[in-house]
Amino acid sequence: MAANIFILNPAAGHGRAGRVWDSLKDAALRLLPASACLVTERPGHASELAREAVLAGATRLIAVGGDGTFSETLEGLMAAPGYLRRNVALGAVPAGSGCDLARHLGYPGDRDGLIDLLARGTARPMDVGRIDYTGPGGVPRRRHFMNIAAFGLAGDVAHSIKASGKPLGGTLSYFFVSLRALLTAKAKEIRLRADGRDMPGRYHLGVLANTTSMGGGMLIAPGAKDDDGLLDLVLVGDMSRLSLLRSFPALYKGKHLNSPGVTLTAVRRLEADSDEAVYLNIDGEADGMLPAVFETLPLAVNVLAPAKKNA
Question: What predicted TM-score, i.e. pTM, was given to this entire model?
Answer without folding.
Answer: 0.89
